[in-house]
Amino acid sequence: MGQRIISSRQREILGLIETEGVQYIEDLARRYDLTTQTIRRDINALCDLGHARRFHGGVDLPVEGSNISLNARAQLNRRAKRLIARRVAADIGAEATVFLGIGSTVQFVADALRDHQGLTVITNNIHVALSLCDAPSVEVHLTGGLLRHDDRDVVGTDVIRFIEKFYATHAVVGAGALSPLTGLMDFSYSEAQITNALLENSQTKFLAADVSKWTRTASVRVAPFSKLTRFYTDRLPGEASAANALAESGLEVVTCSEETT
């Protein structure tokens, strides 16, 4: 059976849950000028696919502390992720050796790198490998390890051992969540270990993450902002704590828009 496609309205509702948190059926019905029954059908479809979790009167993300599936994440903030990816790719020259980590934003970066000449990519991200497998000027090294079906990536100690065989000119990583106090956060220890290995074995370290990551809560520390070279995002949140934390870390922030890309 083919993969079930969500509608544009359902994708928008996912984006609202991701960026604003809990959404209520009555509010969504008013927002879209639809009946509550229609909104319930949208919510039921998202929940049946594992993208969201219903409760009486509303919907939110799946169980706290877990990530939603990669397919769901790829639907969220697509325009912002494409802008971020194009700018990241523009800052990676030909003949570079690049680590591409896990996550949907990094997947968009891979798409933007397809025409780079003489590129060597090392990744544990299945979607990255698939995106680049027919790019003739890009050499792709895919790690071994344990396949995670929902995330379309590979984890485990074999991944870290493979990464340590290389020293990359660039690492491009994402994050499950961002915190002014602790920096990069993720949802599992295995993800955090791999991201750290990418950062430790690279010269220039790029973080690619849209503004929604500041609203998420993850339990595993990955790295402080000071460990990174540059942060690419669509915009910073309104709270001053995020901007202050980034300024204190010395991390260069690149805000990506149509003009900058």
From TrEMBL:
Gene3D superfamilies xrefs: 4-hydroxybutyrate coenzyme like domains (3.30.750.70)
Keywords (A to Z) from UniProt: DNA-binding, Repressor, Transcription, Transcription regulation
Domain HTH deoR-type: 6-61
Taxon lineage: Bacteria, Pseudomonadati, Pseudomonadota, Alphaproteobacteria, Hyphomicrobiales
Matching SMART domains: DeoRC, HTH_DEOR
Any Pfam family hit: DeoRC
Name this polypeptide is given: DeoR family transcriptional regulator
PANTHER family per record: GLYCEROL-3-PHOSPHATE REGULON REPRESSOR, HTH-TYPE TRANSCRIPTIONAL REGULATOR SRLR-RELATED
